[in-house]
Amino acid sequence: xxxxxxxxxxxxxxxxxxxxxxxxxxxxxxxxxxxxxxxxxxxxxxxxxxxxxxxxxxxxxxxxxxxxxxxxxxxxxxxxxxxxxxxxxxxxxxxxxxxxxxxxxxxxxxxxxxxxxxxxxxxx
Length: 124
What we know:
Elements: H1 2-27, H2 33-62, H3 66-92, H4 101-120
Helix pairs in contact: 1-2, 1-3, 2-3, 3-4
């Protein structure tokens, strides 16, 4: 599982960098400031949680507990829901996608709580 989280985290970081560059260069003239800010927020949170996913991969080797593993899956789900919905909202202007974003945020919060529970309750 550690390799999966490390690999997905690295690929997610790559996509976050590409999205950030795309937003800064290709979208700046095409999107309203509000939609551009939403896109940039998606890229920023994707990078935070890509790095968090790499940290979870390491933590899973030190504290191989179910909550630490759950954190990895929650970070992946959060990235898809939070960042994905913001990217789609910015690119399509479909407002209802904004209702999905908080679900991703809840996944992020639950993931960080899972890391804390798994590390404090872990062996070693």
